[in-house]
């Protein structure tokens, strides 16, 4: 997949504009930043189990009505 | 004041055969149920492969005291007779026509002699294809609409309820793996989530036993602000905004965008925040079963525990007239607005001015703390009547503090935050936008029930999620019934006396004293009878099956109503 430019997450439906994105919050807190960096380190492992053809897989996951 | 009330959870799983998109989901679900029956019986165990006893199912009885005319009911609501069930299965709603829809048109209803599964072949001597199983742990595993559904046995307390819900994942996973082992069968994938992100949602329901003397309006008023905001502690997170995920973004709840009413009877269309379905599966004059349809299915055991535990506490507050006086001006809108704001800063209009979800939850917490104090040892701080209630109160307070100060701190307990952290890591590393298919894949695969594939399990194994149970405990609960309710008798009879069982539902068991005899109906309308301490002596001392049936009948007649 082609890398896309990083954008701020959209906030549809939110009534206020706030600067407290979770990523920004992570940066503000040393402990949380550490945890997030640890998470970055297991992304490679997650890459190996992630279904290969994401676009087709997600498109194909169609459910029938439920409760 | 306690979380120790009768609770039962239900999970509808998403089902998918990527190698065979034309497979009928109804047929796949039926095959899955039967695969589980095969797996258990092949291992020397037993299930009650009886037809579900429909006599006490009445989904069209409304809690507000009127009965919906049949002609007005959506076909998918009609699940109370075998014929209606087949009708509902043949007319499943929702979504655009798909290959699975086309396959459905050629579908011969189960129960007819011509029905055959696509993949699962019955072996000689196996029971006929079944729509419903009652399991040795007291649960029900069955086909609901076009999904496999596991309804956990009745338990007392939030933690037990969650344990038996997680045990359902073991059941479903075992069934999928058994079915996939059939020659020619494609791999069946199961997802513990609530939407396909293409307009369809399916539920994870909670059931709480509530005394009928509590006016239903009190439940409505006390629960709506709580349910609308509860997602911040237990939402499962979702990539995409709107029923069809038409707007890119991330939201807290899987279910929020699918709710359109405040109060109503439906569960599949025009979903209401408060569902009025009124089948107590218990003595009608004494009990109501509050059927909660608004929750997300949780992968995190901790999130599920908080969801169920805090709901039990709020029900206690309502029963004692102690619920905080908060009224949302527009609950349905507030549900969505809160879900669409992962920063947790948005405020929604209330009778007390604009309030954030954390603020509203905190009002409920404060009321619960005060009530617990006054109900146990007045005058002393931080007291609660029992251990689990104290644990839930403490965990709730800690979680709300984290959510108020630094939401990411709760990513080790709360699904939507764990998933968000994962997604944000990918966004940082790969520069992904919210409409990226990779993020959609991560969202879905977080809920994959395969331990080696499911991303929740990856995080848990990496020590990033707080667990409540060991795998051993969960596996045990998939095999054994909870001791504290009638589920013990149901499950134990199935495991140890399956030859005598002619039928089983939540509040009845049909037993044959001998193979030629007419079945005897055991009424279990008091959900607390049939517990192990009460029933085990009868099972262990009866000389033979007729004596056991007679002994159980006598025992259950002593307290048939289950009055409080």
Automatic annotation (TrEMBL), chain A:
Answer whether the UniProt record assigns the keyword Transmembrane to this protein.
no
This protein's UniProt keywords: Isopeptide bond, Ubl conjugation pathway
Q: Which positions carry Deamidated glutamine? A: 67
| InterPro entries for the chain | Ubiquitin-like_Pup
- Role summary: Protein modifier that is covalently attached to lysine residues of substrate proteins, thereby targeting them for proteasomal degradation. The tagging system is termed pupylation.
HAMAP family from the entry? Pup
Q: What's noted about domains in the record?
A: The N-terminal unstructured half of Pup provides a signal required to initiate unfolding and degradation by the proteasome but is not needed for pupylation, while the C-terminal helical half of Pup interacts with ARC to target proteins to the proteasome.
Q: What is this protein called?
A: Prokaryotic ubiquitin-like protein Pup
**Protein encoded by which gene:** pup
Automatic annotation (TrEMBL), chain B:
Q: Where are the transmembrane segments?
A: none
Q: Does the keyword Transcription regulation apply?
A: no
Q: Which UniProt keywords apply?
A: Proteasome
Q: Which Pfam families match?
A: Pup_ligase
> Which Gene Ontology terms cover its molecular function?
ATP binding; hydrolase activity, acting on carbon-nitrogen (but not peptide) bonds, in linear amides; peptidase activity
Keyword Disulfide bond attributed: no
Locate the active site. Answer: 144
Looking up InterPro entries in the UniProt record yields:
Pup_deamidase (IPR022366), Pup_ligase/deamidase (IPR004347)
GO CC terms on record? proteasome complex
Listed under GO biological process in this entry are: modification-dependent protein catabolic process; proteasomal protein catabolic process; protein pupylation
Task: State the similarity comment.
Answer: Belongs to the Pup ligase/Pup deamidase family. Pup deamidase subfamily.
Q: Which PANTHER family match?
A: PUP DEAMIDASE/DEPUPYLASE, PUP DEAMIDASE_DEPUPYLASE
The name of this protein is Proteasome accessory factor PafA2
* Species assigned in the record: Nesterenkonia sedimenti
